[in-house]
Design brief:
Blueprint lengths: L26 E8 L3 E8 L6 E11 L2 H9 L10 E9 L1 H7 L6 E4 L52 E5 L4 E3 L6 H4 L2 H14 L7 E5 L3 H13 L3 E6 L2 H9 L3 E4 L6 H8 L5 E6 L5 H10 E9 L12 H6 L3 E4 L5 H13 L9 E4 L4 H9 L8 E4 L8 E3 L4
Parallel strand pairs: 8-9, 8-11, 9-10, 11-12, 12-13, 14-15
Antiparallel strand pairs: 1-2, 3-4, 3-6, 3-15, 4-5, 5-7, 14-16
Helix pairs in contact: 1-11, 4-5, 4-10, 7-8
């Protein structure tokens, strides 16, 4: 049975279990997002957990554009959202500890995927392809962190809660124990950016990179290109404040006010020399494919990461062939990209410490999701739910 209580009830009341998984809390405060585009803070009981092999004390749950779009469209059921999760393990089955190479007390990042791991699943049987498992697919099975109903088992399957359960098919990555909390919360979006910019996009020493959209993933992509040694990084967008953040990370800011052809903007920014990579995090459709035809260098790549409103776009096949260019669609990230992300973040060379972080307590999750859905969010795209009671709403810039 699900119970929800006044948010003034202290976490200390919840206590912890002394059963097979010592370290499991009895009741957990969680922000439950509802189908009618509202969010309430509930206490959820953990005794009814199904398949839990461990418990995670959530330190941060970064808000992704996917969260906002799903919330705005209306969820299918009450849900503890949040799929970019970082936390400390408080309880863990010994077999999972051995399999994951972690132990109680470790700081870890979770991936959102909950793949079926059945031997007859084509995607799960290929190393590194679990993110393509139909059961974990965003448009099919939707068995993933931050999307499972809060009416199922404990309901604690997302990061917008003080604790969440770990399942046998959870994807867990160990983090350095002293990694700054706000940098740690970049683990998954930065891994996406590394995969899209470097692994799929080929960015490297001396390359020119154009990033369309200085949002959450666009800013991370600027950081990834910087870490890869790109010689010139160009950020194209409409938000002056976010372009300023991209500029602080080393990008040349280009304002796209809609009045100038995108290809002309890129041509001007590159002094007519073209670019090795265009990464579209927005989904501009024809505008970006047309720009790519005129500005990509030989062997250049167009990487499409944004789901925009135009699902079909014409492509200049002659230009594509003449330039030996590549168009690639990307989603999620490879396990290797997560390892790369953690290594760069731990080294302190990502530059993401320059990005202001807006901290949000559980009581303000609904308000923040609504603000983001209506275009009234903070100037910085890095919005992080901090669910523990002592964590308050604020904006933090590491340079201050």
């Amino acid at each position: 049975m699900k119970n929800h209580y006044s948010t003034s009830v202290a976490l200390a009341e919840a206590g912890t279990a002394a059963g097979p998984l010592a370290g499991r809390p009895d009741r957990v405060r969680a922000a439950v997002s509802l189908p009618d585009v509202a969010t309430e803070v509930w206490y959820l009981e953990t005794a009814g957990a199904i398949g839990a092999v461990g418990w995670l004390r959530v330190e941060s749950s970064a808000v992704c554009g996917t969260d906002v779009s799903l919330y705005q469209a209306g969820l299918d059921w009450p849900t503890v959202m949040g799929h970019h999760v970082v936390g400390r393990i408080t309880a863990l089955d010994p077999d999972r500890a051995l399999a994951w190479g972690v132990t109680v007390g470790d700081l870890v990042a979770l991936e959102e995927y909950l793949p079926c791991q059945r031997p007859d699943c084509v995607e799960c049987s290929i190393p590194g392809r679990y993110r393509m498992c139909p059961e974990s697919d965003l448009w099919k099975g939707r068995r993933r962190v931050g999307l499972i109903s809060s009416e199922e088992g404990s309901g604690l399957y997302g990061g917008n809660a003080e604790y969440m359960q770990l399942n046998a098919n959870s994807i867990v990555h160990k983090l350095p124990g002293d990694l700054d909390p706000d940098l740690a919360s970049w683990t998954q979006p930065f891994a996406n950016a590394v995969d899209w910019t470097v692994n799929a996009g080929g960015a490297g020493d001396g390359s020119t990179v154009v990033v369309i959209g200085p949002g959450y993933h666009g800013i991370a992509a600027v950081a990834a290109a910087r870490a890869a040694g790109a010689k010139r990084i160009i950020a194209v967008g409409r938000s002056y404040e976010r372009l300023e953040i991209a500029e602080a990370l080393g990008a040349v800011p280009v304002v796209n006010d809609g009045g100038t052809d995108l290809g002309a903007l890129i041509d001007t920014a590159t002094a007519g020399k073209g670019t090795d990579l265009i990464l579209d995090t927005v989904g501009l459709g024809r505008a970006v494919t047309s720009a790519a035809a005129g500005t990509l260098r030989k062997l250049g790549r167009l990487v499409l990461a944004g789901l925009g409103p135009v699902p079909v776009s014409e492509v200049d096949l002659k230009a594509l062939i003449r330039g030996a260019n590549t168009i690639t669609g990307v989603r999620g990230r490879s396990p290797e990209a997560v390892r790369q992300s953690i290594e760069i973040l731990a080294s302190g060379t990502s530059g993401l410490e320059l990005v202001p972080t807006t901290h949000v307590p559980l009581e303000e999750v609904g308000e923040m999701l609504h603000r983001l859905a209506t275009g009234r969010g903070p100037s910085s795209p890095h919005v992080v739910i901090r669910p523990q009671p002592a964590q308050t709403s604020q904006t933090r810039n590491h340079k201050q």
